[in-house]
Design brief:
This protein has 155 residues and is an all-alpha fold. It is built from five helices and two strands.
């Protein structure tokens, strides 16, 4: 079983954001075609592609539909197969590092110095910790062959 192709839409390049979202979704599908995927995953992806190919509506809604479809596919392959795009874990741990490590470190620094202004000093420390953890997880995913050769951007 093979992943279906997206139907090319004439005149889509007139709307830059829609074109970028459509192109990125097409790139995601091209990368997924390179991987060995179970039939049930391919079936689910093909159903999503069929929904995109048969969509009739305004461009703004079409862009939302594409982003929602891409997000659904990415969540599915991450959950079932642990396949992620480049810098996936880094982007997640960037925020987690600031909130899970940075704020507590800032509170400790502020309490020990008697200066609540030190709360802000913990955020960059947490950010660095988060980036380091996420980058190491991305490298592990790459070594194990669980990484797609593309980075997801929001358009």
């Amino acid at each position: 079983m093979e992943i279906n192709a997206l139907n090319k839409i004439p005149g889509i390049d007139q709307n830059t954001k829609l074109f970028k979202a459509f192109s990125q979704f097409d790139d995601v599908l091209a990368e997924l075609k390179k991987k060995e995927l179970p039939k049930e995953i391919i079936f689910s992806i093909n159903n999503t592609i069929e929904g995109i190919n048969t969509f009739k509506g305004p461009e703004k809604e079409f862009k939302k539909h594409i982003r929602k479809a891409q997000s659904g596919i990415m969540k599915l392959i991450e959950k079932k197969l642990k396949i992620v795009p480049r810098n996936h874990y880094r982007n997640i741990w960037f925020v987690l590092g600031m909130s899970a490590f940075g704020i507590p470190i800032g509170i400790v620094l502020g309490a020990s110095q008697g200066n609540n202004g030190m709360l802000g000093a913990g955020l960059p420390i947490g950010m660095v910790i988060g980036i380091a953890v996420g980058t190491s997880m991305d490298k592990k995913a790459f070594r194990e062959g669980r990484q797609l050769d593309l980075e997801i951007k929001r358009y």
